[in-house]
């Protein structure tokens, strides 16, 4: 068990170190003046603690501290400072998640995931500012000039990279095809088009007001493509598209290209950070709402299937008659009882046409009373199937109010009667 926990910690330390190196490559400036446009390790640390049970944090947090300490030494930071920064950066997401989950009692699934991630990112960003002030300027009052940019770097890193790990951690191979070929092809086309569109929007240096306005306008195209990818490929595709867009946008900005790099200063980096954060939030909203809708539809389909099976097993039919239009919807195995498809009996007149002549007036009167708001008594009548055989059916009808405007719908239950009515017996004798 201890070996397994150590292995899990090591597996999280590797992507943390890689993300730190990528963030260093996306930094503006060199040496001590380098400013991280995005701090991707914050997203790795948040995902590691989100996807690990609290008792496993004792193995994950030391691994993250070790990865950050090694990165600090690689960057030329002193051993003491590197260790303090590593401990602080590993503790920040743990504190944020503890506050969100334990005290705010926000679940980490479904529609609550976005709210939990937003709150945790805000707390982590605030702690990042406190760490920066404590370690770099403890004697100064107020915030250092680059504090907002560092806070945004943590916020963007969490929103860019945490959804990648959480989305792929929920991946389970299944034989069920979630999307058709058309959706997969559209998603592939959008993903292939995302990289050149993002490079084109962030490639050319900005010259003049017209070029600046054009560059800003073109920057919306990758956002649309990210949304399309998230709709076609779910959360996994959306998270990967945001990651690709973030790397392109931030790398081009720190090298002096794109709509946010008219001057390479803190404000330009903040503009790029806000752009990437907006893309991530937009895709998360899209995937969360789309996934919630798909799960709701799947639950509704499963519930309807269970009802259909229960009705078919008990030999019953349930119908809903619109008293105004005369349309009827059926639930249950209608072919087993009436011998007709539900589409053939989709209107009131079509149903009355297969009812025995002697019983049509009684059934019509039953429905008229229900339309007037009078509950109908149970009645038995005869209908003729598609094989020209007679079947005795018992009907129980109940009116329902339509938003206070009187009975708008009539619901009823059909089931085969134990014995045929007199009309059916007389019809068979006459035949």
UniProtKB/TrEMBL annotation:
Keywords: Cell membrane, Membrane, Transmembrane, Transmembrane helix
Keyword check for DNA-binding: no
Transmembrane segments: 34-51, 58-77, 83-104, 116-139, 151-169, 181-202, 214-233, 240-260, 272-292
UniProt subcellular location: Cell membrane
InterPro entries linked: MASE1 (IPR007895), PAS-like_dom_sf (IPR035965)
rRNA-binding listed as a keyword: no
Topology versus the membrane: Multi-pass membrane protein
Record-linked PROSITE patterns: PROKAR_LIPOPROTEIN
CC per GO annotation: plasma membrane
Entry superkingdom: Bacteria
Main subcellular location of this protein, as a coarse class: membrane
Residue ranges of every copy of the MASE1 domain listed in the record: 10-285
Protein name per its UniProtKB record: Integral membrane sensor protein
